[in-house]
Specification:
The structure is a homodimer of 171-residue chains. With 171 residues, chain A is mostly helical. In chain A, 65% of the residues lie in helices and 9% in strands. Chain A has 7 helices and 2 strands; from the N terminus they run H-H-H-H-H-E-E-H-H. Chain A has helices spanning 8-15, 21-48, 52-63, 70-77, 81-93, 115-135, 141-162; strands at residues 97-102, 105-113. A two-stranded antiparallel sheet of chain A has the order 1-2. In chain A, a hairpin with a 2-residue loop joins strand 1 (97-102) and strand 2. Chains A and B meet through helix 1, helix 2, helix 6 and helix 7 of A and helix 1, helix 2, helix 6 and helix 7 of B.
Chain lengths: 171, 171
C-alpha cells in the first residue's frame, strides 16, 4: 500500500530528522487545519449565511438526538461555556434548537436540535462533505487512510498523556 | 522505511474506504490540532502568563527581523486585522514590539520585535518546542516524517486549488 522506496523529499527530510522534526510537523498540521477551517468558514458564510461555531454546535447536537447538557456541549466543542450559551440562545430564537426539561430533575435542561434544526443541519452537512472531499483530493484514497491512521495514533497518545478531560468524539 | 504489510487497523479502514474517508480524516486532523492548541494555550497561560494569539503574533515577527506591515501580519496569522491591532498595541505598551517609520514613506509603519521581545519570545519558543516534542512522541521519528510529507502534499493541493491568498509560511 505504501511505497517502500524513499522519495527525494523523504530523503531530504531524513537528513533533517533531528532538526525540529516535531515542531515542523506540528506547524504543518496547524497550517493545514487553519487553511481548511478558513475555507469552511468562508463557504458557510457565503452559501448558508452561517458561522463555523454555529455549524460545529449543531454538528455535536446532531450526534445526540436525546440532547446534551450545556456543560457536555461545551466540553465537546472544546470552547468556553459563555460562547456556547450565546450561540445556543440565538439558535433557539431561530427555532433550530430547543431546551428541554428532564422529568427526573425539573431544574435540569438539555439542549437538542428541533426537527427544523435537523433538516437545516443535514442539508449543510451534505454540502460540507463535498467541500472536504474536494480539498482532500490532493491525497489519494490510500494516502488519506494512512494520514487517518497516523493521526489516530497521535490522538491516542495525546489522550493517554493528558490526564485531563478526553474528548468523547469517536472520530 | 514504511512497513509494506497492512495492519489490522488499515485493513479495517480499507473496507470502510468509501464511507466518508475524507470527512473522517478531516475531523481527526481538526481534533488533533484542537487538542494540541488547547494544551499550548493552557501551558502558555500557566507557565508564561501569555496567550496563544500573542505567542503566534510574536512568532511571526521573529521570522521577519526587518519588521512587517500590519496587513501582511494579519495575512500570515490568518485572522482579522482588528485583533492583530489590539494585540500589537498591548505588546507595544509592554515594550515587546515597536512600530517603526520607513525612511522611504514617512506615513507607513512596520511592526517588529524589540530586543526585549526577541529575548522573551526565544525563551518561550524553546520551552514550547519541548512540549510539542513530548506530545508528538506517540509517533516514531519515521511516522512523524511521513505525516509531515502527507500534510505537505495536502497543503500544496490546498494552496493550488485556492486561487486566493496563499500563506507565505515555508513550513
Amino acid at each position: 500500500m505504501i511505497p517502500n522506496d524513499v522519495s527525494p523529499e523523504e530523503e531530504h527530510l531524513a537528513s533533517l530528522a533531528d532538526q525540529h522534526q516535531a515542531l515542523r510537523t506540528w506547524l504543518r498540521l496547524l497550517s493545514c487545519t487553519t487553511l481548511i477551517e478558513n475555507r469552511v468558514s468562508s463557504r458557510l458564510r457565503s452559501e448558508f449565511d452561517t458561522t463555523l461555531p454555529r455549524f460545529d454546535l449543531m454538528a455535536q447536537l446532531a450526534r445526540f438526538p436525546e440532547g446534551l447538557f450545556m456543560s457536555k456541549l461545551s466540553q465537546l466543542l472544546m470552547v468556553s461555556g459563555g460562547n456556547v450559551t450565546g450561540i445556543t440562545d440565538t439558535l433557539e430564537r431561530e427555532g433550530l434548537v430547543e431546551r428541554i426539561m428532564l422529568p427526573e430533575d425539573r431544574r435540569a435542561r438539555k439542549v437538542r436540535l428541533t426537527a427544523k434544526g435537523h433538516a437545516a443541519f443535514d442539508q449543510m452537512a451534505a454540502v460540507h462533505e463535498t467541500w472536504i472531499e474536494g480539498w482532500l483530493k490532493g491525497l489519494s484514497e490510500q494516502e488519506q487512510q494512512h494520514l487517518y491512521v497516523l493521526l489516530g495514533k497521535l490522538k491516542q497518545h495525546l489522550n493517554e498523556s493528558s490526564g485531563s478531560i478526553s474528548t468523547s468524539s469517536e472520530i
